[in-house]
Amino acid sequence: MDNNDTKMxxxxxxxxxxxxxxxxxxxxxxDTGKEYVIxxxxxxxxxxxxxxxVSNVDRSSGEPKLLGIDDEEEWNRVKDVxxxxxxxx
Length: 89
Description:
The chain is of the alpha+beta class. Helix content is about 20%, strand content about 45%.
């Protein structure tokens, strides 16, 4: 990813601390209206792969909240997006 194209986002963790992360992709499934964000903290695993995080974006309270994905079908759809993203790299 080119540094000039990097979008930053501040997340507030459950303990109230803030963390700056890099947004890889934000998208919405048109049929469900659910929004998701894929982001990274630029951490690498033992194989030098960058670790990415995926969250469902909940805007029902006005202030966006990042939620986990509990539904297996929903998670499978998100994984399809991740696979397509990795092919494009």
